[in-house]
Amino acid sequence: MRRRVAGCTLCSLCEGRTNAVPGSGSAGSRIMLVGEAPGRSEDARGEPFVGAAGRILTEALELAGARRDSVYITNVVKCRPPGNRVPTDGEREKCMPYLEAEIRLVGPSMICVMGNTALGSVLGLEGITRHRGKVVRKGGRDYFVTVHPAAAIYNRDLLPVLRADVEKLVRLAEGGPA
Ligand code: URA
User: Which atom number of ligand 1 is nearest to the Cα of residue 75?
Assistant: First the structure.
């Protein structure tokens, strides 16, 4: 799967990328986190969430008692859109089989969609403010919704919201109370 992503030419995002960015983490992780698309740092390193948003996410996980290497982290779209624009519907659709394969291979007990792009692409829902902090059951799987970590860079009020959500996610994935 990583090899297929690395050489993917299914959409035009392949033309501007330095590296395609498959998910990272181990098969068997109980938690999978899904963001939008790689940014500049991720494109340069070929790894998801290694820039500023990644630091916020890693910190939230650690505060919740989960090490970053104990979860699987990925994105809806595996290549950086030019200028970090939101990926188009066509780009998301072309890339979706990779995310579906990651879900099958990793088999997480909880999949956390972070932000509106992941919420719409994965669950077909709109309105992150309305859905965040909640579990959505779909196709026999449990999904948890939270804000995108990058949103907390621009709006510091979202930092405690993200941290509380990640704490709840970790608790739920361990079979704890909501
Ligand atoms: N934002 C995302 O959605 N994904 C990344 O990997 C980095 C920033």
Answer: 4
